Protein 1
Amino acid sequence: MVREAGVGRLVDEEAAEGTVVVNNEFFSLFPAAPPQLLYRFIEQTLQPGPAVSLKCIAAGTPTPHITWALDGFPLPHSHRLVKGQYVSAEGDVISHVNISSVHVADGGAYTCTAANSAGEASHVARLNVYGPPQVRPMGQQTAVAGRTFIIACPASGHPIHSITWIKDGSPLPRNYRQRVLANGTLVVQEVTRGADDGRYSCTASSRSGRSDTQSLQLRVLVPPSLAPLTFPKGTRAGMQIRATCLVQEGDQPVRYAWTKDARPLDARLGVRTSQLDAFTSILVIERAAAEHSGNYTCTASNAAAASATTARLTVNVPPTWVVEPSSTSVALGGSLALHCLARGFPDPVVTWRRQAASGEFVGVVEGTGSGESSIVQWKNGTLWIGRSARGHEGRYLCEAGNGVPPGLSKLIDITVNEPPWFRATEQRQEVRVGGTATLTCHAHGDAPLTLTWSKDAVSLSPLPRYQVAQHEEQDQGGTISKLVVTDAHLEDSGTFSCTASNTHGVRTSQLHLLVQDVPGPPSGIEVVEMGPQHLVLTWTSPEDSNAPITAYIITLEPQSPSAGAGAAREERVGGHERRLVLKDLTPATRYNLRVAAENRVGRGRSSSPVLGSTEEQPPSAPPRDVRVMAVSSSALRVSWEPPPHNSTHGTCLVTTWDISWPAHTPITLWFFGLSTPKAQDQLHHQLLLSP
């Protein structure tokens, strides 16, 4: 099955695995590997009669083919000799020669040769068959003049004592060019017509005096000898070209073949070849073009060999545009690549020039400018501006020439457009509530330049407090628009966008306005823990006023009248605190507690007061003026005055106590400073009473 595989390509799906057919030719899909002989037959010596099998196994890519020879000649045809070859499952080629009943005439040097497109490998071993010498016919042979002629004497029989050669009745060798090797092979170097052609005889002899002789007729062929192929120098496009392939020596008939760059001549090139006579072939190109340049080879072949001569044709072609430059514009600060590409032979040289103030065109100096703003001409002719500036505007000339007239040139204009831009694309401004903020937008770019304002991506509200003024800046250039926000409110905080636009683009600058106020009162004021001399207070931060809280001020004021004016005190904690332990307080005292927040704008209002009370604790002094009165013979009344007020730490519950006990019994009294049922006795006064 053959299916299409692209333009001009056919693939044979039934071809051997690992190959494809393209334009009716087989190609391997795998890397080529020269053959290797995996198995070789060995030399054998035997009597006539038995069967003999010679085998070679080879592997390679593509699959190699194995051929056989006997003493350098093809195997003789015989019903006793059978050749076979097949490919194993592993891809190895197995070839064999089977001789059913060996004869003396079957002896000699057998060669198996495995070959593929990547190379070849050979193995030679003798099959010796006992018997008298026999020489197989050699027929007519040819040799190529100037080369070496080698032929083996195809002798069989065993043992062979000697092999000799004669030419035209004279034993060989007769000169330095002739040699007879020990195995009977004849070697003739630098074969010459007239001296080496003729009749040669080979005689094989045994020690017993038996011998056999066969002859061959050698014909010396002269290969073609070609004069050097040449093309005229300085060939330009449009000229006519002729080249002559001249055979100076060689046997006829001679066949001629022309190739370009090792391929047959393409009919589309319009190249003609013709044979003037038996010794001359010419190549004609009516009108030379760039595609005619290349290496041309004339190959002349005859029955002897093939000879070739090669010459390089170079067609000089004037420049033609591949990429013609054109006028262009670029945004200020943008990059620009001006392509000016021409082809021809030799390769054209591209040069850029710029029109000076005088009107003359001067060379563009590479590196003009600083940093990324410099101009660089690349090797391919492209003019590159990394960061365009106003100074790059003007008229430029691109020239391409290679010494073949006419050259090329093109005038172009570069315009540098300035889209809107800002020196600062982002600003921040802070103002206090009630203050005035002025937001300034300074834009640059080609006129006319339009500036518009928006807030948080929404068009600016038409509020009386928002006023916009715009004017042209004379000193620094550009256009300035100012947005004045009066009587600033917290809700004025946000991102104001100034958008500048012209015919070359749109850019936006963002101005962040932050309206700040003093903090509001903290909330969630709560006393979470009480003790005789401390309170633990917590609170929640107030709403954001666009300024971080730097401190909290806690005010505590005792409600006790005895505290007097000025008894209130304040404590400060950091802005990150949400809890405070108030220490060194008076036991059994009520306090009004307030919390205020402070930021860099100022101190905010205090929270509503929260009441907190410290717990009582035992009096710190004993009762005063303790008095004892007899009530009866077995009872006393004890009375006293409370301790000083500042040491009671609560309310005293008892100031009189009646006591009874048996007569004449001693008693010791302890006076406890009790204030509340919770208070524990820590201080006492002792009174001893005796009858």
Protein 2
Amino acid sequence: MQKRSSLQPRPTKASMLRQQGGGTGQQQQQQQPKSRPVNVAGTSPVPQQQQQPTVNKRNSKAQASEGIRAFMAAHRAVAAQRKKTSDSSSSMDKHQERPKIRVMTGAERYSYDDSDPFGMQNDKASLKLQTVIHQAKSSGKLNLSNRNLDRVPDEVWSMYHVDPNKIVVDFSSTDDAWYDSTELNKLIAADNAITEIDERIGQEFGALTLVDFRNNKLEKLPESLRQLHQLTVLHLSHNQIEIFPEQIYDLGARLRDLDLSHNLLTAVPQSIERLSQLEILHLNDNKIENVADGIGQLVKLRKLYLNENQLVELPALHHLQKWTKLEEMHLFKNQLRVLFRGDSARSSIVVALPLLSRLDVRQNSLTQIVEGEKVEISLPKLKELLLAYNQLSQDANGLEQVMAKAPSVQTLDLSSNLFSEIPDVVLTLQGLRRLDVSANHLRMLRPDLGKLEHLAVLSWEGNPLRSAPRNVSMAELIESLRSKLVLAEDQEKEGVPAANPGDNSDKEILSTGVSSSPASPSAAAAAASSTPQSPRPSGTLDLSRKQLSDLEPSMLSGHNPATLQLQHNMLETIPIQPLSSCQLTTTLVTLKLDHNRLKELTLTTTTDNNVFHSLKTLSITNSRISQLSVANTTEQQQMVFPQLVELDISINALTSLPENLRDYLPSLRTLKANTNRIDKIMPQTLDGLEIIDLGNNDIAYLPPEIGRIGTIRELMLYGNRFRIPRPAVLDQGTGAVLEFLKRRLGS
């Protein structure tokens, strides 16, 4: 038996792979390798071929070494421990939130409170204040408004204090450091209950340009306010200041906006002249009785508010001649008796306020505008002159003088005064747009107000007019005045004496409400020759909401109205016979038949008694009208409405309009047919019209030829079915629509 060798060779991966590759595919029995001969004599042993051990399976892999297995086991143990720790942490976080540690760098490393050096307290109000202060350091604006404060917190006054022993400079931080702070230039503490401003305001915040302590309880100001030499805006309204603060005078080098309104001031001292750079001065809603002459030295003043005080007079006019930059002066609700006061020591005074655009002197006790015979004041840029609620009359001294030197006035308020007639100087204001003469003693409205081409608003209510306008819109009233003026001019040219403005001829103008342009002189003469003579109509007869299905002549007897109202009844036809029997067909100017049951409107007749010779305005809205018809007869026909200027047939069931509409309504200027079922429109129908409303119909096509109608001033077409022009063009107005249609024609 061969002796087993004590040394057994270790199988390698390479030898095992060679053995697997050279096998016969059959499983072999594993045999022990033969031992090598022992080196007895110390010589090298002779190598002997050994049979390598076989493995159980031909495709099995070699096993990893002990070192590799130990290394991988160690890593698996570490990974398992990490997973176990992570799961444990997640479970704890669900039940208990870990405290957050604030990492403070830069300027935040300095603590204002040694008891809480890391800012871990949860005092919400304190934290909010610190946040506001922090933001102010970077923006330069500190807003403490509406915090119910009775004083400014000490943290504010010490916001820029830095303890050298607590500064940590961290150049890796992205936060704002103490050396990056911006000087405070705006301090706002409005809407609180602050009773006193600390003296530290001038010592700590010398760069302030705006200070706002509105709506507090201040009675005085700190002396250190004088040190704010950069201050330009100071707002102290709605406080309890009784004496004009002297500290403000030292801010005159830069102060431009000063608001001391809604305080308890009683006087404006002479020292106010030291505020030489002041542009806006609010002193309204105080108890000021006297204003020193020094206010006239504010050469840069643009807006002055002295309203709602107890002023009896202003400084003499020559003290105000340096107000060359003044734009607005508000003096309403005082006790002024004279607006511009002269000086008896001076022979003549000439003052110009070249930029003044608004002068408000309402609710005073003015009896005259200028005091003194040789006083001249020029207001070339004045746009608004408000003189309401005074005691002025057409004889008030200086009224015509001031208006004559104010040619640019657009708004003139003379309401609630003592005028018995409108001053002649008003007619010289060619740019006038709004005139208010309500609540005076006027007996008539002057027809020559029609000379004011731009007049758009005329308020006359509250006057004892002999024939007050009723049921007349403002535009209709103004247009009627212009029509009356044109008629008077035509009569003057023909040698006919013009009617006295005070006679009954004004009653027609003041009560009819004709809103159309006047007819030509030849047409007027022809109409006059064909119209039977009758008493001049006046006033309005209101028979609306009477449930009338027919009109009885007895209802009309004894009346000669210019306007007849029959709205909200049950009339099925126009009651021509009753009107004709009372001769109202020859005198009626306005007829309103809205909300009745008329099914058609006949435009022609064979009987002269059925002709409305003077009718200018006809309104038949919401009355079920389905067509505008013409009498079907071979007899000679007459026009029912030869003088009709405005026709309103909106909210009916019309499907079309006559192509030759102007043949039956030759004087028509305004056609309103909104909210019908009109599906087609012809250019001939609109020829000669000025105002056309065809909105909310079914018009599918808009003829481009309409663009050539030169009389159209207003064209409303919204709510129809046509797609051209697009709504964007319609929104631009009549001019854009007509221009679009012209381009469609290639003209």
Protein 3
Amino acid sequence: MEVSEAYNVSAVNISEKHERRGATKHCAYGLCKSDSRYMDRQGMEGVFFIRFPQFHREPEKCTRWANACRRENFTALSLQKFVRSRKRPLVRKNLTWSPEPKRKKSDLGNIDIAQTEAASATSTEDHPIAKLNLDTVQAAEALLMLQNSESEEVNIVSDGRKGLDIQDPNSMLKNSCDEETQTSSCCLTLNEFLALKLENFDLKSKIFELEKKSTQSKSFSIADVKDDDKKMIFYTGLTYGQFMCLWKFLGPATRNLSRINNMRKFELTPSKSRGPKRKLSPEDELFLTLVRLRLGLLHTDLAYRFGVSVSTVNEITSTWIQFLYLQFNRLRNAMFPSRKIISKHLPKSFRKYKKVRVILDATKFFTQVPRNYEQQGNLYSSYKNHCTCKVLIGITPSGAISFVSDVYEGSISDKEIFKKSKIMDKINPGDLVMVDRGFNVRDILLQKGADIVIPPFLGNRTNLSPQEEAQTRVIAKLRIHVERVIERIKKYKICKKIVPLNTLSTFSQTVFIVACLVNFQKPIVK
């Protein structure tokens, strides 16, 4: 039966402070004659009557309870004559039969009443049931389970005079043990059998709770993958050591971040608590944000993985992306190193071009197609045959990303994005800028005393000279590093998705953050 069926109509011992008086109550179990009018009689101290479920609300449960009472001519419709209590009682851990010392043995079939009463009189301290930490519902549940087990496992002893079917639990246990083990040493008394039933029920409840916790409370965290570099790179693009370098770079502010939607409330009432304790630690919040950038998972998926709500995932990612951008943006000027620092770490392959300050290339990201035809024309790229946005990327000869422009419309030319990106503010006289053929910006650089390294043009000729072909191969071999860096950026799937139009204004921040995260990886050029 269900646990809620613990409201069996039987007399149960409780403390005196829970005793209730009012309308007359009668016990409906078996041949018990307990009556609330005679509470002063011997054996009636602390007796409480538990009500039946109402027939018009729960007819099936009420009928099962009536049948479990095994009372002659007693059905669910007879319940109006019996107990009704409005308050759920607090019950002791031991169950007792209502004492009837003058009742004959034949009245209860083959049950030995003297033995039952003696077992009931045993103190709760020495009784095995008293050792079980169970509440009212579990105790009454066990009593009903006992009745069900009797009806299924043993033959019913019939009283011919009254037509009442009652069983002897002790004889049932003895017969069962004799049949299965062929020994009488395993026979149990009624109280021992009831204690085992209660203990079995308690253990099943604990198993159910543990299984529930194991399936629901387990959530994804950095602790699950930090010992495996392959998994860390898959989920974040960084090894655990690189992740910790990033964590230390972000500084102590990570411990005191106020989420975006709660920031205003926190500023208005800084002395008050900012709400309930957060489920994720700051490290796991950063880990969640990196997983979002690396794998491009939806907020619903992340909420399920990390065991939080979708709105919480949205707050975490928005807050941490803004925080990462602010921290990285402070180094935007320092990311573009001087020629002296570049010369100190110049790879051997660049010995012929020692004055190269930056290697430039542009990359595009797909966007949604706008309804406005003018905006659609500005975003459309004939090379990609799709609406795109464009970003200028610059790296040092050693392969570190040193420059990331804002996002521009996809139809912009390479020369135009070179002008608008304001990279000329970082170029000094005597610097060399290595570019592809599309960046024909020599005239702009010459105005500042700099020059470009660009593959030679064919022009009106049919073939390049041998020296020009050799120069083209050398430049292409060196320029390939910027394309490899761009490939690393696009491994973050947040950049490979189609960019919604309403997020174009913040997509520049996302690309810049991803570029800075790539700098935490192993260098491209050795």
Protein 4
Amino acid sequence: MIRPGLCSVTFRSLPVEEVVRHAASAGLEGIEWAGDAHVPPGDLDAATHARTVTEEAGLAVTSYGSYLTFVGSDEEVHAAGGAVIAAARALGAPRIRVWATRTGSAETSAEDRAVTVGRIRELADRVAAHGLELGLEFHGGTLTDEIGSTLRLLDEVGRANVLTYWRPHQDMPVEPALDTPRRAPPRTSTIHVFSWWPGHERLPLAERSDLWEPAFAVLAANGADRDAMLEFVPGDDPALAAPRGGHPAHPDHRRRGARAMRTRLAMPEGLQDRMFSPAQRERLAEITGIDVSRTVPDLAAAPGEELAEVEVLVTGWGSPAVDAAALARMPRLRAIVHTAGTVRSVVTDAVWDRGDIVVTSATEANAVPVAEYALAQILLAGKRTLAQQARYRRERTVGTATAADPGIGNHGGVVGLIGASRIGTLVAEHLRRFDLEVLITDPFASAERIAELGARKAEPEELYARSDVVSLHAPDVPSTQGMVTREPLGLMREGTTFLNTARPALVDIDALRDEVLSGRLSAVLDVHDDLADDDPLWEAELARLTPHIAGSQGNESHRMGEAALEELRRLSAGEPPRYPVDGSRRDSMA
């Protein structure tokens, strides 16, 4: 969500109370207090006063706008940093804006740049101790004067609590200005919103709607929380901070711009009836204004004049790929709303390279039935149902030997989850209700995050060796393909169960087959696309094979349709998407 606010420097001549009053009356939600106006560094009384007045008006202190430049001796910079930190803490500001020197990136020597990197890093560590972050002012005459140097600087500093601000540079035309937010959305914390054109001539924001509307669409695309701070209005007139002044992040502004989007269902004929119930199809027509009985199964065959107007594509299973050729015919495309999980078959690199297209998926909705299926199979596996069913069919007697086996049952058993993915996370949350110990292995999930799920982070070797059931929930990417080999399967104890609802490519099927046919392990496989018709697993007593039914089936597909409707509603209202797909992570996503 993008939160609209005000930089206090916009009205530097007004007292704190007046700045707050104007921000509140304009319907803005927060204030960045200026270090060169209302809250000087080290002035704790001024900081405390500004915080009190801001919070009493129901507004947030979004940041402290310092003018720390890292210029001077090490002692001077350290002391200046201390004064800034003290003011920010007294303000209750979660973020401190700083300037990466006063020399442009092209004029700064490698040696001086290295000094600045070290000083930013040192301050970042100091503020991190107080739970704060730094925001680098995106400004001419600094090391963040252009996007390439900015991204390089962030990499050189290498601190997660250091992000960048963004603003359009003076006299920069629309397209070059838009290129900067397209390249840095995940690393942008704050936007300074103003319209100067040409030179220092201040205009109402509406005068540059051709810049700000697409800029906010780009910045909203990855769904991160950000602050958009109004700065520099014509004549320093407080009245221009009001909604009619056109703050692009203001809810009133977004509602005024709501309209039916030029949308097409780019999917096989009839798929819309599967994904949307009759009532949902009515809502789809209301939101988009389209004929929901018609689809575009082949973009290459669609009339050029039709595609030239398309702003939103709704896609799903079997939809055509949106490649460079298709994009060239859809210059106005700004969103792809996918009604299924993975977007890999539909969204090509050409979409990500363009940088201004919002992509959403229904992965979260599809994760629900998969997690439910996995939970059911885990609990059944705890009862050793496959082995007990096989014995029962052979002997035709109930027997009591297995009932007395302390290794059977779901009280005190151990479940191992491979992957803290969306589905893995949901499964862990379901398992909290049962008397089971849950282990999770995932190189990208911290022990703290896993503990929040009621589980414990474990190394793969421990997980395989201790678990009664091992359930696979990792994505199918190059680094995970073939990850379940003969060695980890060999660590599993006799009588335990391996469950795969992820993808077949992750598992060495020959190794798993040997374990199952030997009678040592049971297997529940919902994904097994490459099994030959005569594969022994089809008839194996200790294997349960289901035809990829864990994912959305029948009426469960309507949950994904509902997710797509919500994304379309948000797009129409100018709101950020609920479940955007982050293209920068596409190599690690399923």
